[in-house]
Amino acid sequence: MVPPNLVDKWGSDLSTFCDLYLDHWNLVDCLQCNESAKKQPRALRYGVARKGVQFLRLLDDPKDTRCHLIILTHGAMSRGLDDAFTHLALIRETLRRYGRRPRLQAVKQQIHRFAGELLWAKFRQYATVQKEDLWYELIRRDPSEWKDSGSPRFLDR
User: Least crowded by CB within 10 Å, which of 28, 76, 97, 149?
Assistant: First the structure.
């Protein structure tokens, strides 16, 4: 975790460190390269996260392409958590953990009807044929399966 004004310096320092001390390793920026570059045998993968959503997306990558090192700016987790799918994942996790409580049982059964409005993503809800059925499906699935939900246009970020 670094101060925001030092992020670029730390990135260049990492490059210098690799040149000096890590022979035969390639430094790969996970946000600037393709999947094949991430899978190189001696790739040291890193990423820079200036916002919370960027950090969560870097952590969400598959294990074989996930960053070895993430440079995170101070305050990143209080900035940029405005992604509708991040909010939906937090709602889903709350319902998963505490959904057995009597007061949350009714919420758990009906929240899909209001998810578009809650997440300010109603434009996406109306843009799909499935409407609230899609929210119902997404809330009940693990977030790692959301990309495979059968609605690729809806899930494009």
Answer: 97
Q: In the structure encoding, which two tokens stand for residue 53, read together?
A: 């959503």
Rounded Cα gap, residues 112 and 92, in angstroms: 10
Long-range contacts: 60-65, Cβ < 8 Å, 24+? 60/143, 60/144, 61/30, 64/38, 64/39, 65/30, 65/35, 65/38, 65/39
d(CA 140, CA 7): 38
**Within its chain, how far is the Cα of 1 from the centroid?**
18
List pLDDT tens digits, range 108-131. 777 877 777 777 665 555 555 566
DSSP structure class, residue 5: G
